[in-house]
Give the backbone structure.
Amino acid sequence: MADGAGTSAVGVDGCPTGWVGIVLDDEREPAAVWAATITELAAQTPGVEAMAIDIPIGLPDHDERVADRDARKALGTRWQTVFLTPVRRAIEAATYEEANRIAREITGAGISRQAYALRKKILEVDDWIATAPCSVYEVHPELSFCHLADAPIAASKKTWAGAHERQRLLESAGIRLEGDLGIAGIRAGRDDVLDAAVAAWTARRVAAGSAVQLGEPQPIAGSDHAFTIWA
């Protein structure tokens, strides 16, 4: 039986058109959902016990997050797949140039364009998290795959070999994605679907009490949630 089987959970990943989710429930086959906003996606998955999402939850005010550093260490040669979460004032800046300047003033280091490119989705979740209808946990798919495989995966998820290996690992955990996945299969890329699926694997592990957390959970202002990264 897969780790955490019996727990209803959803894993969520951002995609260019919105959000894609994979729902795990022992009473039915894995299901894929898609929505333009995280609020709409959550509304499509009522009753789940846990949601794991691949987006930073809880923006730091002054320093780097310990969980980000721990995730980089755990991934070894794949450390670059984890970006350091920008401080709040930087991610709220209207332009990348302004964000980079603010980050350097506060932390002494700039931020990556990749991190700033996720600005809209980071702020979307930041606004939503306090009213989330279920327990929500931050994950990093590469870290989850690392725990599933007991080692970092060498091939990028963008390659055929990398995608094939990730799908094989999911199937070994009892998560078999079949068919065209409906609207989710049209609106999301293959790598986004695989990331959502392994996030669901972690969400189920968190709910079952068998997941691993990186760093001490830090409280999120205005919410009952605390942020760390789970695998």
Observations:
- The chain has a mean pLDDT of 92.
